[in-house]
Amino acid sequence: MDEDALEYHRTDPPGKIEISTTKPTNTQRDLSLAYSPGVAAPCLEIDEDETDAYQYTTKGNLVGVVSNGSAVLGLGDIGAQASKPVMEGKGVLFKRFADIDVFDIELELDDTDAFVEAVAAMEPTFGGINLEDIAAPECFEIEERLRERLSIPVFHDDQHGTAIITGAALLNAVEISGKDLADLEVTVAGAGAAAVATARFYVSLGVRRENITMVDIDGILTTERAEAGDLNEYNRQFASDVPEGELADAMVGADAFVGLSTGGIVSQEMVRSMAEDPIIFAMANPEPEIDYESAKAARDDTVIMATGRSDYPNQVNNVLGFPFLFRGALDVRATEINEAMKVAAAHALAELAKQDVPDAVVKAYGDQPLQFGPDYIIPKPLDTRVLFEVAPAVARAAIDSGAARVEFDVDAYVERLEARLGKSREMMRVVLNKAKSDPKRIALAEGTDETIVRAAAQMADRGVAEPVLIGDAAEIERTVADLALEFDPDVVDPGSGDYGEYVDHLYERRRRNGVTRREAETMIRDDTNYFGSVMVDRGDADAMLTGLTNHYPSALRPPLQVIGTADDADYAAGVYMLTFKNRVVFVADATVNQAPDADVLEEVTRHTADLARRFDVDPRAALLSYSDFGSVDNEGTRKPREAAQRLRDDPAVAFPVDGEMQADTAVVEEMLTGTYEFTDLEKPANVLVFPNLEAGNIGYKLLQRLGGAEAIGPMLVGMDEPVHVLQRGDEVKDIVNLAAVATVDAQGDES
């Protein structure tokens, strides 16, 4: 690990962070705007009104991570210079989890007054200050003085981060164990910055101060020790009026143990001395105060255990807190991170742990079961939903407590947060909002599949669709119960009910294609794809999803045979929406038509342009080839050329389209308008129609895997009713997204 870490850090460029530009710097004019003489304009505006710095500079998204390296986790007092890799790492976490930019500042200052003055002088630079790895008790005074002096948030993560995360865990542990916060007897091992801050925070959550017993290396913090001057002014507040004793004495009868000290100090006998169903947070690293297996094995009742380690359940990881606290605080230009904001963060984390966990998170942690209970009381750090739950809760608390300088609309704010994590979230939000405005009945042909059931629960909970699960009712009910979902599904069971009308409908559709009535009866009873297709074709459902457990052609065949293509369409096609950081393109056809002629290419272009509009994208279509506007003339290049010409000649086509052209010509503005000034495309294309299925499938996968694009789809266009065929391995979020697309399709069919 040491060698790997050294190689990781020294690989050119050394370190882990860099500064990159956010505006164009390609021309002389760009540079004139970025620096002299153009930069004078924002300088003068800020001189008139200092708050304009949030509008014209990075201040509103910039945090200073400041340390003197006097108490680096696991390393001690290694000094400012040696602490720099840690501070850079903190910057990586800020950026990775909350899209917050960071300057790490290492100060060679041990004097508290000098440290405070140095940090205070940097207030104009930053939107917030994160203090890191500063020894106690100096860290308490430094934070207090800076909070009083500065009008931007100041937060010492070593104190409050652990407090917030364990606070969230405590809320859920108390609920699971049936205990009451007000009656909870808590023993805290450790009396440093994290321990004192955690104990204080538990009081804010509802634990009574007199029920907290704190222990340091010399034993229980007693009033006698406080009077003797053995305690500092910060841990003195947790001195108990009890006889002197050791950690073992303090743990007798305790409901909860919170370890913020050193490894191996708690025995199984100590655990057995605690109250029933004890809560144990052993957070010393790398060795906990007691290891997970020993704590669990010490008793026959429920032991709820958390550690600071990632290889055990319930990891207390501060990355669940500080990025999202600052995100919410920065976005309302808060003057501080106060107690109300920290409490709001803890409650948001606790509530998130009760929700269904995304497949991507489960896979990231080795497919281990993640379901609310003793082994899952806090979310995982890689759960992207933390941003959308914690940051809004913090921002709202800042507004309610008077710490905010701007207000915001919650729904609009969540959309802005989603946009920070990628263009695909921003684009899907458009469709999700449309879907919520008028949810439709979506038939889910693979209704017994666990992933489909989970997706259905989310569709209903988020209000994007009214899911109908097709399949064995008893099996679906068992799955809902096993998953502990608060979901009362709408189930249609083809095997138990009279669906003679469905048999008649299918027989009528397929009798001229070799299907007897008896075969139609078997297909309705045994093949949910045919059942769902008939359901949609009859109007008993508005749309259909299938394909998660079937090959794409097998899943597509029943809806094509029963529902067919739209009146104005002869062909269906599969479209992917690919999103990049600041760009979105629709790629067709990637799943259906193997060797399209000009007729197919023309129709696919129309369908794909219509789909783009559903995402509020004005389509600009390019029909692709390895030829640019006739540079190569053969049968293959003539097909897209002819299709493009027909579209340009049709007055009903209300979007720019051109071709045939090479892919780079279509997407690079300098090539498109500089070399081919005659083209009908004034800007790069966002609808890319490939000349055949092979090219389309290869192209979208290369863009996704090597180009860093996020893919949504495939979305099936050209059908008479909304039908979308999932891919094997699709996750819950993919299914919910396609359900929203299907709902919007159905809304369009009604208009």
TrEMBL record:
InterPro entries to which the protein is assigned, alphabetical: Aminoacid_DH-like_N_sf, Malate_Decarboxylase, Malic_N_dom, Malic_N_dom_sf, Malic_NAD-bd, Malic_NAD-bd_bact_type, ME_PTA, NAD(P)-bd_dom_sf
GO MF assignments: acyltransferase activity; malic enzyme activity; metal ion binding; NAD binding; oxidoreductase activity, acting on the CH-OH group of donors, NAD or NADP as acceptor
Pfam families attached to this UniProt entry: malic, Malic_M, PTA_PTB
Domain Malic enzyme N-terminal: 14-147
Record keywords, A-Z: Metal-binding, Multifunctional enzyme, Oxidoreductase, Transferase
Coiled-coil residue windows: none
Sequence ranges assigned to domain Malic enzyme NAD-binding in this UniProt record: 159-399
Cofactor(s) needed by this chain: Mg(2+); Mn(2+)
CDD domains cross-referenced by the UniProt entry: NAD_bind_2_malic_enz
One Gene Ontology biological process: malate metabolic process
Family note: In the C-terminal section; belongs to the phosphate acetyltransferase and butyryltransferase family.
Name assigned to this protein: Malate dehydrogenase, phosphate acetyltransferase
Organism of this sequence: Natrinema pellirubrum (strain DSM 15624 / CIP 106293 / JCM 10476 / NCIMB 786 / 157)
